[in-house]
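Q: what sequence does this backbone want?
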């Protein structure tokens, strides 16, 4: 299983970006997916999760600004980011986890840089 993120880039504060995470290969499991980010000098932090049921959760720091969705027909996870802030600058990475197991897969990440 491979995960490849795209859609990162540089944007001014207040702007928007949509990240994508394309999944290839057969997971052979029921899975959920999530976005995580790591800013320079900081630990990686969880951003958002979408479960196999479609239910979602968000970190308080992005709630109301970010929206996570998944298109299972396209095997793609998305993160729509709006009203971006300087503190959203980070490497964003997607993860796929198999429900009820310890199996998980990570992408390589896509950089998001927000400037004033």
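A:
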């Amino acid at each position: 299983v491979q995960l490849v993120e795209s859609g990162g880039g540089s944007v001014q504060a207040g702007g928007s970006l949509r990240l994508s995470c394309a999944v290839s290969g057969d997971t052979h499991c029921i899975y959920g997916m999530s976005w995580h980010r790591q800013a320079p000098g900081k630990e990686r932090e969880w951003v958002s999760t979408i479960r196999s049921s479609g239910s979602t959760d968000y970190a308080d720091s992005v709630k109301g600004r970010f929206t996570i969705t998944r298109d299972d027909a396209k095997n793609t996870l998305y993160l729509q980011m709006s009203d971006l802030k300087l503190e959203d600058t980070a490497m964003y990475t997607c993860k796929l986890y198999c429900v009820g197991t310890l199996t998980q897969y990570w992408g390589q990440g896509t950089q998001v840089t927000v400037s004033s």
